[in-house]
Every structure is written in C-alpha cells, then in structure tokens.
Amino acid sequence: MQLLFASSNKNKIREVTQLLPEGFSLYGLQDIGIEEEIPEPGSTIKENSFLKANYVVEKLKKDGKKMVVFADDSGLEAEALDNAPGVYSARYAGVPKSDTANNEKLIKELSSQLNRKARFVTVITLISNGAICYFEGEVKGTISNTPRGNNGFGYDPLFVPEGYSKTFAEFTSEEKNAISHRGRAVQKLIEFLKSK
Amino acid sequence: MQLLFASSNKNKIREVTQLLPEGFSLYGLQDIGIEEEIPEPGSTIKENSFLKANYVVEKLKKDGKKMVVFADDSGLEAEALDNAPGVYSARYAGVPKSDTANNEKLIKELSSQLNRKARFVTVITLISNGAICYFEGEVKGTISNTPRGNNGFGYDPLFVPEGYSKTFAEFTSEEKNAISHRGRAVQKLIEFLKSK
Questions:
Q1: Which residues of B participate in catalysis according to the annotation?
Q2: Which domain does B181 fall in, by range?
Q3: Taking the model in full, what pTM does it have?
Q4: Widest Cα–Cα separation across chain B
Q5: Which residues in A lie closer than 8 A to residue B136 (C-beta atoms)?
C-alpha cells in the first residue's frame, strides 16, 4: 500500500518508514512535489492535524491522484495555563518561530504557578477510503523551572515525563520515541495499518 | 470479526447485518445487556456519534470486554436556519420527542424563507484498535411546505432530495437507503471494513 505522510521532515519520515510493516511504501510531501508550507488555521491540535491531511488529499484529487494520506500535529498543554500553549505551541512567543523564546515565555507564564502539570499530545489523522481516522498519543509530565539537556526540540528541555527526573532533552531519541506522545500515536497508527 | 452497533434499533441492525461481508458478526446493545438510553450531550452530530460509541467502549472496558464498536448520529440542517435543527433534530419541538411537532415547527420556522435548501447528514464513529474513525454521509435537498408520504420517519415527509420531486416519505425503504445520508455513511463503513 502506498502511504503519503503530509510532512517535509525527513527525520519523521525515516522514523515512520522504519516502523512500517512489509507491503507499505511511505512517501513525503517532497516526493509528490508539494513544497509550500501547509496552512494550519485550526483552533485545536486535532483540527490542524486533519486540515494538513485534508489539504494534501484535495491537492492530489485536483491532480487526479489518490493515496492514503496521514498527517500529525502536536502540542504542549500546561494545566495551570488552561492548556496553553496547545495549538499555538510552535509560535507561542510569536513569529518567526523560536524554541528558545517559546521556552522563556513558558517559564515566565508558569513562574507564579505551583501546578506544574502538563502533557504533550500528538494527533495523527489518516484519510483512507472514505474514512477519517484519528490516533492520539499523550505523555504526562511536569514543566521544569530551568531548561536542561541538548537533545530533541521544542519544549523538550523543560518537559520532565512522569516517572523520570530528567527532561526529554536529556533522553536519547530512541528512549524518547518509546514513551513520547508522537511515538505512541505512531505506534497506534502502525498497529492499525498492520491489522488492515 | 465481532462488531457492536451502539443502537437498540432492530431495523438499523438488520439493515447493516445484510450489508456486512462474510466473517463479520454484528451485535446490538441489547445483546450485551445495555438497556439504558445513551446520553447525547454533544453540541454537534459528530460529537454525539462519538460519545455514543465511546460510552459503549468504556462500559465494555469496565466489564473487561473489548469489541470493535460503532455508533451513528444523524440530523437535518436547513441553510436558512443557520443549520438548525442539526444536533437537535430529534427534539426540535421539545420533549417528549414528536415527529409531527418537529415537522410543524420546521414548516413554521421556514415559512418566511425563500431559501429552502437543506441537507441530511449522518456521522458514523467506529472505535477500533486505538483508532477513532469517522464516516460521513449526506444528501442534499429542499424542504417542502407541506408534508407528503407515509414511509420513513423524522423529517422525511418534508425532505425532497436533489434530483427528485417526491419526499423521502414517498420513497420505499430500499430506494431511500440507496441515496440517503445514513445509507451512504453505512456504505463507507462497509467498504472500509471490507478493506480490512
């Protein structure tokens, strides 16, 4: 089965490729000539995940093509901040997007908060054969006061997953993939595709 | 595969049973001892469809059981009424639910409207193996000023599907199933299950 991942991120594409069972071929946006940034005007992570997949499905339709398409969208939700930054995680401190500025803003917003609970969430949307399927992965944890670690990206230097004392930025990528929000959503997608 | 339809409506269950490919066994709510009415507190048809399926999944989980579950929810959306009655279609004129009172209210609300366009929509939610899948069916049409026909239920006596001059209540059930919102959503579900 030919699968299209609505992403231009080669690391993500490689990771999913390694997990796919035999009989599946994975393509990225560049493979089908989509080079523009896909709009993400949704008000929730789930909605943006759907909008990305749907954008590509519509684009393929115009070209008379049909593929099974999926997209992912992720965000961090801090309990004390009414689940902010959520859908705005990547541009919390404005544009141009900056991980450092976003982390600084999060530290500031939480500075007077005793409740440090947060969760990372990923929603994958698969559009296939008349169905729209969602796969959700989450990892609960807390937000540290000071960034630690050099791996990962985004809020990883501040996020300490439940049951651990180190931040995601102090995990190797293999360790992180095994328990992360995106890793869990991808695992659900893979299990689902295997059962097809 | 064992499938549970989160419905107590024997007509619906029989209809889907007839369409299922070999290898699938369909059960209804009564088969697993759920006799209470499932709450539908959602603000959209899609949300109620999900909530019904999820209610049953959670109930089965408590009993240590696991099945593939699906539910449907439907409604009528009139363009001139900002898509009302929508999620309130069954209780548009209040409770206890009455098809006659609902039809009368719809005629009244549309009496001064030149735009008679409407659509029936069904959303089926399937919860299976970590995925939440949606199948949507719609049929476009117009709302008549006077009810006609004795078949069907709900707003069928007022709904004239595009390309026809008779109301859904003047269709036989086979004719209606072939083009109806629910028929189309069920067809998408069946195609999807066949591909599994």
A1: 73
A2: 2-195
A3: 0.85
A4: 55
A5: 132
